[in-house]
Amino acid sequence: MRIWGKTRGVRVRRGTALSVAGLLAAPALVLGTGTAAQAASCTAAKGPYQKQVEKYLKRPVDGRQSTADCKAIKAFQKTRGITPAAGYAGPVTWNTMKTITAQKAGKKNPNKAKKCPTNKGRIACVDLTRQLSWIQDGKKLKFGPVPVRTGRDGAETRTGAKKIYWRNIDHWSTLYDVPMPYAQFFDGGQAFHSVTKSMYNNPGSAGCVNMRPADAKAYWKLLKNGDDVYVYGRKLGT
Asked: Looking at the domain assignment, is residue 13 inside a domain?
């Protein structure tokens, strides 16, 4: 398959398959229960993870939705880019809270479980379960870990050992008609690249590993063609 891409405003034809799976997906209405009308305001509905969410937000844990609970949940959702931000304690909100907790726990030593190979030299690791990525050289951490946004359900970021094979600092996806700055492709159309949306914006990418601009820029400086990439785990909700 052949696709078209752009570099610095000039369209270029690629003979290799780059079925670009970067940004995508309009936010879905994910309440678990509820309606679009509830999404426009603060819902009075009790979510299936009400107690867990109350505990995470240090609210009184009674399992009952209150106005104060809803406002606190909604504020969290807005900050993290969770849509709809309706104050509903559903699976997306709770999964995001669990992911953030796991990310904080792995901040100092993301490869404590030794799931990412340490015998490859320079390697970019991607943990789908924790939505974390980092660069290490042997056992030495070189950059990160940083939060990432990987493939949504049905368009998961593929696991396994990969290598960066093509880089384009100003890539433009003609498939989705969106920019993909600092794109580094490692598996078909799946790549590291910069986005401006929240790393917790649901439902996820179309397969690429989305990164904050500063993190994607750091990866661009640290990695090169031929460098190893290792993807493992499973994103919550997929």
From this structure: yes
- Has residue 103 been placed in a domain? no
Which of helix, strand or coil describes residue 55?
helix
For the packed helices 67-80 and 91-105, what is the interaxial angle rounded to 10 degrees? 60
pTM of the model: 0.81
Judge whether 7 lies within some domain: yes
CB 201 within 8 A of CB 83: yes
Which residues of the chain, if any, have pLDDT below 50?
Answer: 1-39
Residue of 70, 116, 125, 208 marked catalytic: 208
Q: Is 125 a catalytic residue?
A: no
Instruction: Give the domain CATH number at 142.
Output: 2.40.440.10
The answer to whether 193 is a known catalytic residue is yes
Residue 177 has a pLDDT of 84
Contact status, residue 45 vs residue 35, Cβ threshold 8 Å:
no
Best CA proximity match to 124, nearest among 85, 163, 79, 82: 163
pLDDT in tens, 75-89: 999 999 999 999 999
Q: Containing domain of residue 64, as a range? A: 36-89
Annotated catalytic residue: which of 70, 116, 171, 193? 193
- Whether residue 97 lies inside any domain: the answer is no
